[in-house]
Amino acid sequence: MSFGKRNGGGRRSAKRVTAPLPALIITMSDRHPAILFDISEAGARLRARDAPSKGREVFLQVGNVDVYAHVVWRRGEVCGLKFCDPIRGFDVHQLAFEAAGASGARISRKPSFTETRSSIETGATP
Length: 126
Description:
Mean pLDDT: 80
Helix content: 10-25%
Strand order of the largest sheet: 1-2-3-6-5-4
Order of helices and strands: EEEEEEHH
Distance between the termini: 53 Å
Low-confidence stretches: 1-10, 106-110
CATH class of the domain at 17-102: Mainly Beta
Radius of gyration: 19 Å
Largest sheet: 6 strands, antiparallel, barrel
């Protein structure tokens, strides 16, 4: 006997990216300052004092992204949004990049061919 879905997967089809950034959830009557936890092309998870209730239509502003969404779940101050129209993958990764810079995390890059060759010749780390 097995549990869960036979073919795997869950309700989430878009890959989420961790991006802790300040955000703003706007409803017809209120503005809720929030912290974005993670985001995908299809939705986001945020924390906001007095987060809007399930079913509410909202407008999310975070970084350079402005998007209409619906609150699909809420647990205390944390809520999940589903975007009315998916955002671009570029925007998702740009927010993750901004979050890494805001947190002081070191954003690594591959060393260039010249740096790699030089390090091999000198025995140093690029």
